[in-house]
Amino acid sequence: MILHVTLRLTIWFLLTADLSAANIVMGVAIAVILPRGYQSTGTFREWIGIIKKIIVVIPQAYFEALHMILRPHTREEVTMRRVKTGRSPALIFLDIFLITFTPKTIALKYHKQGWYEVHRLGKGKQP
Fold it and tell me: What is the pLDDT averaged over residues 57-82?
C-alpha cells in the first residue's frame, strides 16, 4: 500500500508542481482514497530496474530536447516494443511513462497481447 500511495503522490506532485501544505493534504487524500484494483506489485528487482531507468531517462530527456532544438527531426516511425512478461499494472504504467517522458518517443497504445506501440522521431528525411 505504501508503494501505491508513494507512486500516486509522486505523480500528483509532478502534475501539480505545487508543494504547498494544501496541495500536499489534497494529494495524500486522493492517493489514499483512490481504489486499488490489481494487487500484484512486481518484484523488488523489477522496481530497482525501473528506478535505474528513471535516473537514466531524466538527463536523456533534457539532452533529447536540446538536440531537437538544435537539429530538428523529420523522420517518424512507429514500432512495437515487447512488454516483459508478468508485469504488474503499476510497472506497465511506469514503462509507458518512461517511454513518453523523453521528447523523441511517445507510447501510442498498450496492446494486451504484450506490446507497446511507440512513435519515435529520428534523424534524416522521411523516405
Answer: 89
C-alpha cell at 124: 534524416
pLDDT at 81: 92
- The reply to whether 66 and 108 lie within a common domain is yes
Adjacency order of strands within the sheet including 75-82: 75-82, 115-122, 105-111
- Closest by Cα among 113, 121, 102 to 53: 102
Question: How much is the pTM?
Answer: 0.63
Share of the chain above pLDDT 70, in %: 90
Please check whether residues 9 and 57 belong to one and the same domain: no
Query: Torsion angle, CA of 88/117/7/91, rounded to 10 degrees?
Result: 20
Q: Judge whether 68 and 104 are in contact, CB under 8 Å.
A: yes
- The domain in which residue 111 lies consists of 43-127
Phi and psi torsions of 91, nearest 5°: -70, -35
Q: How many CB atoms lie within 10 A of CB 57?
A: 15
